[in-house]
Structures are given as C-alpha cells and as structure tokens.
Amino acid sequence: MNAVRMNLERLEIPTADVVLEADVAVPHPAYGMVLFAHGSGSSRHSPRNRYVASELQRAGLATVLADLLTPQEERIDLGTGEFRFDIGRLAVRLAGLTGWLARHKPTAGLDIGLFGASTGAAAALVAAAARPAVKAVVSRGGRPDLAGESLRSVRQPTLLIVGERDPIVARLNQEAMELLPGETRLEIVPGATHLFEEPGALEQVASLARGWFLGHLSRERNPEDAAPE
User: Mean pLDDT over all residues of the chain?
Assistant: First the structure.
C-alpha cells in the first residue's frame, strides 16, 4: 500500500481576539476536513483525539487539532476550572477557526466537519448552529445538553457516540436527540466507559466517526489536489 502524502503544519491562528495553537494535517488527496473540539481539562495533545484524527487522515480527511484556550487560560483553568464550561467562549472560537481554515490554502475548499468530546461536543454543536458551512458533527462522550437552546438550530447531520457504561451521559444524549431537528443517530459502544479506555472501544469510535464524515462531507478533492503531478 502506498504511503499517504501528508502536509503537516503547526499554526498560530488568530480568532475572536486571541491566537490559538493548532496542528493541521492535510492528506493528498483530501476529501473533507474535521476540526476537533477537546473536552474539559484536555488539549490538542489528547491521545484519544489524536488517535481518532490519525484514522480519519488514513481515510483521506484533513484534521485540525486546536487548543480552544490560550496557554494563560489553560494555566488558570487547571486551578479553577472556570473556562472549561464556558461553552459560549469555546463555541465562538471554534466558529472563528472554521472561517479561518476555509480561507487557508491547504484546507480551503474542503467541507468542514466538527468532532467534539465531552464539553467540546457542546461547543461544536453551538458552533454548528451558528455556521451553516459546517456539514456534519460527531460527539464522543459528549454533553450536548450544555449547548442549551442552540440544539434546536443544529440542522447538520449529527452522530452521538456514548459508552454503554456511561449511563448519565447516555441519558443526556437521548434527551438531546429529541431537540436536534436534523438527521441524528445515537451509537452506544458496548462495554465502554466515558473515556473509551477499554480494549477496542476507541477503535469503534474512530470507525463510526470515519463512516459518518465520509458519508456527509464532499468527496471532491480540494483545489490543490486537482492539479496534475
């Protein structure tokens, strides 16, 4: 099997009056782009999100792992937890990132999907409600209830993935499904807890996310890939 050609960048992206760090990977050809919103107390270095991102890259999807807090905010949040549940702040920054990436040459022209984990899923849903350009959303162990009334405005296809042994979050996701007006599916991963640390659980998450994004993002190549080699 031929190795996937990959364009890798570590960027500092200006958005919403701050500068956020992001790791961008664009395979060639690329058939879409997925922006990750990490959960509370995590960052773009989350090993779980990085694993899912690597599987999406192998399928021809560009990935963007971004810190939604500045380094100073992260230091404060470690002690106080005051920013991790500020869904409005996180969603505004996430929406701003989607706009910036839509203009950035390696990712311009690619359909955008959002992958949110834990509280990051709520930010992804609020951002999707504000940005119709977002084509699909996947939530891993998410807290969609924290998106509030924005749920009623999310018309993008949304996949909710929850562990079987995470009953409270499963119930919150079931309740959120009743408010989401677009195509919605709930997948329960057998034997999995909130962090999907059990053998094979994260692999199932990656497989479900890959199928959802490939089914709902454009299969057209981005302009950079259209030129002959």
Answer: 91
